[in-house]
Every structure is written in C-alpha cells, then in structure tokens.
Amino acid sequence: MAATTISDILKGASSLDLTPYEDLYRYFHAHPELSLQEKATSEKIASHLSQWNKYDIQTNIGGYGLVGVLKNGPGKTILLRADMDALPVKEITGLPYASTVTMSDADGNEKPVMHACGHDMHITCLLAAAEILAKNTDTWSGTLIVLFQPNEERGGGAQAMVDDGLYDKVPVPDYCFGQHVMRLRAGSINLRAGTIMAAADSMKVTVFGRGGHGSLPHQTVDPALLAAHIVVRLQGIVSREIDPSDLGVVTVGSLAVGQTENVISDRAEIGLDFRTVKLETREKIISSIRRIVEAECVASGSPKPPVFVPTRRFPPTDNDVSATGALREAFQGHFEDFDPDTPRSNVSEDFSTLGLCRGIPCGFWFLGGIDQDLWDRVYGEGEGEGQGQGSGEEIAGNHSALFAPVIQPTMRSGVDALCLAALTFLKK
C-alpha cells in the first residue's frame, strides 16, 4: 500500500463547505479598517474562532492583534499568520460588496477605506484553515498558533506584537508560515527558497529655507529649488552607486512645499521609499541619501540642517531553505498550478519579524487571485506574466482601487496551502 501523503490527509479532512467563508470574505471586504484601527475586524475574528471551543484566544496584543492556540498533544509548534488592516483607497471595483467605508486616519483626515491588498482574503483563509485543523485533530499532533496581525501596511504590526510579549503569551513556534494574495493567476501557489520579498524603508526628509515674497527671491532661500536639486541627485544613487547585479530602488513618493503661488515657503518635505535585499546595500543607500541632502542644503545656504525621520521599515522576507524544501514537496503533490521558484518581488512585508526576533525559520508564499479567464486572455493560457500574446486588457494589482481577487479558486488554494504547511510539520 502506498504511503499516505500530506495531500491525502488534507483531501480527507478538507470536506469543509467554504460557502459560509465566501460570505465572511464579502463581509470583511465591505467592512475594512485602517491600520491601528482594526477593532471590529479583530472582534469578528475572535468571535468566529471561539465557536469551536478549541482555541485559547488572546486579544489586544500589540494593538488589535490576536492569537488562537490549539494544543493537541506532543510535537512541533507551528504559527500561521494573516494580516488584517486595509488601505486609504476609494474602491471603484463595482462589486456588490464593495466598501463604502470612510475613517479618520492618524492625522485626523477622513479617508475612504478599502481592502486593496487582499488582507480580507488572508483573514478568511486562515479562519477556514483553523476550522479544518480544529475538526481534524486525529490527523496531527503538536501545537497550532493562528495569529491575526494588525498594522502590516505601516510596517509596525508584527514588531508591536513581539514587543507586547507575544512569545510570553504563546509557545515559541518551531516555524512561522504566511501567504499573500497577489496579481497572479487565481488558485496558483508560488514559492521560492531564500529572499522572496525585498526589504523596504521609508523616511520623511525636511529641508529648510528662508521664506519670503515670490517677487523677491534674492531675499530668500527657496526650499522648492533646494528640494528639486535633491530629487534629481537622488536618482543617481541606484544608477551610479549600487552594483547593477544587486537590488536597489529609490523612489521619491511625495514632495510638499508651500501653500500658494506668490509665497516662497520656509521648508519642504520629501517622502522617500527605498528597497533592498542586502543589509550593506541598505546602509549604502541611507548613507548616500544623507550625503546628498546635506550637501545640497549647504550648497543652497539652508539656514538649518535637514531633519531625517524614518517612517516605516520592513525587513526582507527570507524563506528558510529547509522549510521551503518541505513545503515545496507538499505543495507540488497537491496543487496543479504551483511554481516552486517564483521570481522575487520588490514589494515588502513585516511577516518575517515574527521569526527574526527569535531566530525562527519562516516560510512565505504568494497566492494567485486574478480571474483565470482574464489572466489567460491577457497572458495566454498556461503562460506567466510577460509571456503570451495578450489581449491588451489591464489587470489591477495590489493597492489599486480596482484590485478584486476572484473568490474561488483563490480561497480554496489559500486554505489548502495553510493546512498543508501545518500538516507538513504536525503530521502524526
């Protein structure tokens, strides 16, 4: 008789009807909450987890973070994670369950809110996986932690949970696993060993001038001109200072100076974002930004030194080679559409903070969410992005006001992937 595979165990266990979870997904999509304000989302998740009387639930960790712990005999401890927060984006998908929510942001400004990055799908997949694993404890042994994280979009949620004593409240896991729905063919699972997502840093740079009347520029130090020189010079960091074989991206995402046409302001604010994989490249870019900004301030006669304020930091998402190998074997035996060596993405996540703080090996994969027929029209059936003849149609990606993952087969693949990851290391 052939040995029972992880996929066989899951197929025997996953007769769960996902129709209620499709409705739950629509609820979360229609009721998004901004980072650090995920109160109702967290309460809804806790209520759902509590109905099986299997999970020890702890809430309000690092904000509105919560965990459920299911102890099921001896064995390893596995942590599965989903993020909960949404974005200040006005949804234009036209879906019947589209968000019409508005909320006040951290600065008190009223903003439209949308699950434009798929965190609603992450929540729902993890809740469904939690039910399957709770109802099939005869197939595995060990401890399962399901973790729902706030504030991923601003880059602080995972660290806040760690700083709030996460691993004093739950057992330290042997492995941490997570996933992210992406602009990929629906139902596909995409994995790679090593770095799968880049590190990201953001900072706000304030440079100072001397304000005055627009007709008398000789009496001023114009921060608009100063900022313009800085923006141009920053473009040379990647093209002239970073090894072309290494990843480096520097983006000026915002530039704010002045309030009206005939007044020269006394300051300008520059919003920067940069992406790297190697720590030494990150340090080089930070050093270069400082050097350029400070030199341009001196050259312009700025009356005060510039101010640098870091606003976000995401570590690189590194997949443990050994854990990824085990996941690859399980995924390959279960999913028809599986890429074991997907290209690294330059977008970023703070998931790996949950592992880096204790040296815990991690595994992270991408979940395709784009309607299969649309994907095949654009890229050709069975082809990847950038291949095939294409129909000329556009496919919205993460953070777009049009981003709308198709519910199935996205959800089924996401649920199965989480269950497979847990069972791979908890199988009896």
TrEMBL record:
Q: How is the cofactor bound?
A: The Mn(2+) ion enhances activity.
InterPro entries registered for this protein in UniProt: Amidohydrolase (IPR017439), Bact_exopeptidase_dim_dom (IPR036264), Peptidase_M20 (IPR002933), Peptidase_M20_dimer (IPR011650)
Q: Does the keyword Manganese apply?
A: yes
Q: Which residues form the Peptidase M20 dimerisation domain?
A: 202-297
Which cofactors? Mn(2+)
This protein's superkingdom? Eukaryota
A GO molecular-function annotation: hydrolase activity
- Manganese keyword on record: yes
| Entry keywords, A to Z | Manganese, Metal-binding
- Which Pfam family would be a valid example here? M20_dimer
Q: Where does Mn(2+) bind?
A: C117, H119, E153, H180
Q: Which NCBIfam families match?
A: amidohydrolases
Q: Name the family the entry cites.
A: Belongs to the peptidase M20A family.
Q: Return the PANTHER family for the record.
A: METALLOPEPTIDASE, PUTATIVE (AFU_ORTHOLOGUE AFUA_6G09600)-RELATED, PEPTIDASE M20 FAMILY MEMBER
| Protein name as it appears in the record | Peptidase M20 dimerisation domain-containing protein
Task: Give the organism, scientific name.
Answer: Penicillium angulare
